[in-house]
Amino acid sequence: MLELGLSLVFAYLIGSINFSLALGKLRNLDVRETGSGNAGATNALRAAGFWFALAVMIGDVGKAIVAVGPLATLAYSFADEPTFSLAWVQVAAGASVTAAHCYPLWHEFRGGKGFAALLGAYLVLHAPLVGAVLAVWVLVMIFSGYVGLATMVAAVSAPLFLAFFMPDAPPELF
Questions:
Q1: Which site in 75, 85, 89, 130 is 20 to 30 Å from 51, CA atoms measured?
Q2: Which residues, including other chains, have CB under 8 Å from residue 173's CB and lie 6 or more apart?
Q3: What is the pTM of this model?
């Protein structure tokens, strides 16, 4: 049980680092005060342009990779007799880092939508899923023109891809 608790805490703390707000401080910019008011990469694009948004996206994906990969493995190593498998601990870390991205402790619980953090978690948990989810995102974005809709449909498509097209995916993802 220790491995799960530590993983959830580590992931939440690192997930609470919001790169649009952290990088925005370097430019005297709070992206929540412009555009949609959301602290994610899409609003960062509206507020400060492509390169800023790309840096935000890389940071947000990267923090999830760190939380689900090395930090979850570290938390798992603290347990003498683990109750859960490493895969379960990593899935829990993915949920925690994504929740923290949306409700960051360090930023008054006002964060992004969680899509970048979710992609980072998927990269560690089952990388082929990322390509499928991004393809859905691009298609919905092209046909609808709405980033928010594309993000929601892409996120909902992930379990469908796992269930119907990716039988080799780890069972913990279901």
A1: 130
A2: 91, 125, 126, 129, 162
A3: 0.89
Cβ 111 vs Cβ 104: under 8 Å: yes
- Residues 12 and 94: their CA atoms lie apart, in Å, by 9
Query: What is the domain extent for residue 141?
Result: 127-174
Return the structure tokens found at 145.
């023109």
Report d(CA 171, CA 163) in Å as an integer: 10
pLDDT tens digits, one per residue of 63-82: 999 999 998 888 888 877 87
47-63 burial code (b ≥16 CB/10 A, e <16): bbeeebbebbbebbbbb
Q: What is the DSSP letter of 43?
A: H
Q: Are residues 9 and 84 in the same domain?
A: yes
